[in-house]
Amino acid sequence: MLEVKNICKSYQGQPLLRNISFTVAVGETVCLLGASGSGKSTLLRIIAGLEPPEQGKVFWEGQDLASVPAHRRIFGLVFQDYALFPHLTVAGNVAFGLKMLGLPLNEINGRVLSTLKKVNLAGFENRRVTDLSGGEQQRVALARALAPDPRLLMFDEPLGALDRNLREQLMAELRRILRLSGVPAIYVTHDQEEAFFLADRVLLLYAGGIVREGTPAEVWSDPGSAWAARFLDAGNVLPGVMLPGGQVRTIIGLFPVECGHAYQDGEEVTLLVSRRGIRQVTQGAVSGEVTDVIFRQDGYKVTLENGPDFYLPEAPQVGHRIFLEVPPLGVKCLPNLPLQ
Q1: Can you count the helices (H) and strands (E) in the chain?
Q2: Average pLDDT value for the chain
Q3: For the whole model, what pTM was predicted?
Q4: Which among 46, 73, 139, 188 counts the fewest CB atoms within 10 Å?
Q5: How far from 59 is each of 62, 73, 186, CA to CA, in Å?
Q6: Which residues of the chain fall below pLDDT 50?
Q7: What is the pLDDT, as a whole number, of residue 236?
Q8: 158: exposed, middle or buried (C-beta count within 10 Å: 0-12, 13-18, 19+)?
Q9: Residues near 186 by Cβ (< 8 Å), separated by ≥ 6?
Q10: Distance (Å) of CA 167 to CA 104, 136, 160, 163, 171
Q11: In the Cβ-directed half-sphere of 325, how many Cα atoms lie within 13 Å?
Q12: Cα Rg for the chain, rounded, in angstroms?
């Protein structure tokens, strides 16, 4: 098991990582999800042993890795830019780490063939990597990381350079390979779709710290702060004012809220309002003028004045005022935290 404990790191005199702590269990895939510049890749490099932390430690099964160089940690690392050797064949790239371990040639050849089969590249052994497509090159990079039987796999935005269709295909293949191999993994991305698709557990990074942790379903349904809700695009984040009787007044109307937080009447609050499960009605407390309507495969994305948008089964006319009914479970009261 990997344990990261109280990792701190600065960049150009500014704190980048602040007391980061988490674990990765056997067979678990943990995604570090955050915006560009949030320190995700730096944290990965610290775990890999490619740069030291200013404070904190990294442990593997209780062993402090501070004195263990990167090549002795037996961690596989896959980059966005593949980092393949252009002068080597596919087999040569996959065999590189095995040769560094000093394995016998027959074992190296056997591992190369079996690993290429895992990533659906059987028969590609003698191809030049420069002749491969982006998706094929990424598979070679994954095979190179898998071949030495790593104790931990780490991915740094590995699908960021691929088009949408190919990215979705490789996401499915990567999920299959991770489940099949049972190797624990850390996956770094700024893309919530990738994180939610691949992760057993998501760590949301912001301002140098982990601000939310949980399964994809837990993080999506309860982001924990207005910042997290906006970053995940989990719904409409609406400022409002608490009124007597448990109602909140917002720019598009009144919402009844059962809130577990202690708010006083007249206090400013923040609501997370779902975009789905909404019904258009003839009268209601929530309304707005339609400013845009976009067809989606499962309905219409309807944008109201001042920005909120909802998904409706039928398309209203732009310029018309509509009334909406939002189910009670579609409204959450977010805590007033510094992360707004």
Answers
A1: 8, 20
A2: 91
A3: 0.88
A4: 73
A5: 5, 11, 15
A6: none
A7: 96
A8: buried
A9: 2, 24, 29, 30, 31, 32, 44, 47, 152, 153, 154, 155
A10: 36, 12, 8, 6, 6
A11: 6
A12: 24
Tokens of 332: 């959450």
State the number of CA atoms in the 13 A half-sphere of 7 facing the CB: 29
Give the per-residue pLDDT at 298. 85
Q: Which tokens belong to 84?
A: 């393949």
| Domain spans in the chain, listed from the N-terminal domain onward | 2-226, 236-334
Residue 135 half-sphere exposure, CB side, CA atoms within 13 Å? 15
Give the H or E element holding residue 139.
helix 134-146
pLDDT at 280: 94
- In the block, residue with structure tokens 């920005």: 307
Q: What is the maximum span of the chain, computed from C-alpha positions, in angstroms?
A: 77
pLDDT recorded at residue 28: 97
For domain 2-226, give its CATH number from 3.40.190.10, 2.30.30.210, 3.40.50.1220, 3.40.50.300: 3.40.50.300
Q: Which two tokens stand for residue 202?
A: 């998501």
